[in-house]
Amino acid sequence: MSAVLEVPAEAGSPSRGGARAAVLALARFEARRLLLSVPVAVAFVGYVVWIVWHGRNTWDGYPALQDADRATQNMPMLVGLAVLLSANLAVLRSWRHGTESRFAALVVSPWSRTAAHALSVVPAALLTAVCVAGQFTREALKPGAVGHGSPAELLVGPLTVLLFGVLGVLVARLVRSAWAAPLAVVCLLFLFVLGTGPSGTDGVSWLAPVVTEPSTKTLPSALLGRPAAWHALYLAGAALTLAFLAVLAAGGRSRTVKAGVALSLALALTGGIAQAARMSPSPELTAARERASVSPEKEQTCVERGGSRYCAFPEWTARTGAWAGVVDEVRSLAGGSAHGQRLVVRQRLDARYGLEGDAALAPSEAAHQVTVGTSWGGNRVPEFSTAVAAVLVAGSEKASGGMCDGRMVTVMWLSLSWQDDPLGALRRVRLDDSLSGSAVVLSPTDPLTMTEGQTDVVRRLLGEPRAAVAQRVKAHWAELTSPGVTTARAAELLGVKGPEKADSCEE
Amino acid sequence: MTFTVSASGLSLHYGGTRALDDVSLRLTAGVTGLLGPNGAGKTTLLRVLATAVPPDRGAFTVLGHDPGSARGRQEVRRRLGYLPQTPGFHPDFTAFEFVDYVAILKELTDRGARHREVRRVLEEVGLGDVRGRRIRKLSGGMRQRVALAAALVGDPGFLVLDEPTVGLDPEQRMRFRELIARAGEGRTVLLSTHQTEDVAMLCHRVLVMASGAVRFDGTPAELTARAEGRVWSSTERDPGAKAGWRTGTGSFRNVGEPPAGAELLEPTLEDGYLLTLDGTGAEVAA
């Protein structure tokens, strides 16, 4: 080395932070660009619009928070894909535009830049967390909300964005082509759609970021049996592993990076193995599901309201008021002893297959007992109202099952006439959303059937003043609720034109 | 004499090609020109001095720091401004964003101070008014000034400029000369160029490279003096000339060994440069 006289030529130079501060500053710079990139900005705008639109759905005013938390997981997948593409392009930027030769002579090394790119994904994940929190809070603040959300389930959305983002960074470090990330997206979709079942029953499906079940039923949170916390750990570990691998691939071979790879891989494996081990429900969970399904009375809390008894699982006790409101409305329109009939409204569910099965509940054989499910709002209200009316008319759910005579007219009028939009409720309670012809009528247990003639008569009755019809219902209650009464006779008693054809449930 | 850059025995091979051959040099404050034909090794030397590529052999220091070690390399990079031959730009960035990005990569992490510094260098290169414009919308000359601003940000003690005036029109080149001259005040600038006029106008010192080695190291006047008595005029191209070309007056300007009685002309830096390359195997014919 030549002898040299040093010249300190740095007087007045701007002050410099260390390498770590530079990585954080670069991460902030890249994060801002990432959030403002077209795919990510569009994805977030779409996400927010979807949340607002979804939240304005007035039918869904009674969320169960153990479902609402999982409902936050799907849209972040789209945000995650946008972040994957944009983060990938950001890493490739210096290669695509030939600035790598300049940057090679700068202080911040390529692997530090990669670390900054990985960190730049974090604000997108945090913004997703804000959206998730907003969506969930909005549901939780609805007056009809029940149940408990899981923080681990709420973490899935943000962690998915984080995972996809660092995957984009890693792909860019491994393949210097702008086509690699879109191909990775296609491969991921192919893998998720075809490689795993949607059921979440096997360990493979739980390797996907978001695991959805085919069932739409709501279970008590204690009976869900989803390994949500382990899944969140798995996702966090996987995201960290990909991030450290990207730094490693960019030349960061420090002990810290290698230790980071090992530790994050251990986290991912721990989460993955633990969630796979919990695919089959534990004996305790199986027993709890069995108890809730077969003998719910042992798990429920009952309250008396307006002369009836309402028995609900602990998370649903706040909803008994809404049920009682329906019972009171229907019963007030009934005549005879049904007007003061004491009912038992019991919440029932079939949790034996967890979220896998979607089997219908069998009608209750107990006299004056009405089944109510775990969902409420929207179509569930006229369905429950119909079940209450059917029990008041037939005596039990079992007895109302085979009802195929003029009593259906009374049942449906009792069920619908008190509602704000009786014809709308009629449409919603029928399986085919029709207002004419025969149709299956939904209820919490076995469905009922309306003939074409009964539909016509009910529609005419709903067009009449409610007070006048109610008076006739009460006056002719005994005959209107007698097994075998024809639809024509019921129409005659209620003062509207009857059907031209005889009743037939086979029509 | 105080040296800001000192290199000794720098050699670098690309496959079987010797890109640098035992290069030794010492640079002081001010603008030093680096001349040489294509393939002479100028860009390789600049890349080595800019720590973008390590030499196979030899060593050098920049402002007292030895880039042979990782720590020393970082210290050199903290004091370095490098404008590569094809700098590349991020077209979607504004001029401000691009220079700001480079500033971060130079570890200027305090956001307020960094932004002030970015504004300062953009003003210095005359881009203060267009700093918010996307680079893809800037002219070639403006882009080159963005690249210079990126090299200048952080007030580096050693500035390496690889053919910064290539592709610029005369007015832009004149503007760039002003900038480089200003940049050379109080810092060391190594300017690689094909433009001997640039060297004549800007540099207090000039290096001529050919075939990976330094063939001349001296002042521009000394390089010009090499052609003293070796430039002459004739009505026809002199077959004995190393190089000759018809001038605007219709007579030939010849460089080489003049015949007896030849009408000698005042030499230029370019004449000295061409004669320096003579015998190096480099193409010297004009």
TrEMBL record, chain A:
The keyword Transmembrane helix applies. The keyword Transmembrane applies. The chain crosses the membrane at residues 34-55, 75-95, 116-135, 155-172, 179-197, 228-250, 257-277. Keywords: Membrane, Transmembrane, Transmembrane helix. This is ABC transporter permease.
UniProtKB/TrEMBL annotation, chain B:
Keywords: ATP-binding, Nucleotide-binding, Transport. CDD domains: ABC_drug_resistance_like. Residues 5-236 form the ABC transporter domain. GO terms for molecular function: ATP binding; ATP hydrolysis activity. The keyword ATP-binding applies. It holds the Pfam family ABC_tran. SUPFAM superfamilies: P-loop containing nucleoside triphosphate hydrolases. It comes from the Bacteria. Residues 234-260 are annotated as: Disordered. InterPro entries: AAA+_ATPase, ABC_transporter-like_ATP-bd, ABC_transporter-like_CS, P-loop_NTPase. Belongs to the ABC transporter superfamily. This is ABC transporter ATP-binding protein. It comes from Streptomyces griseicoloratus.
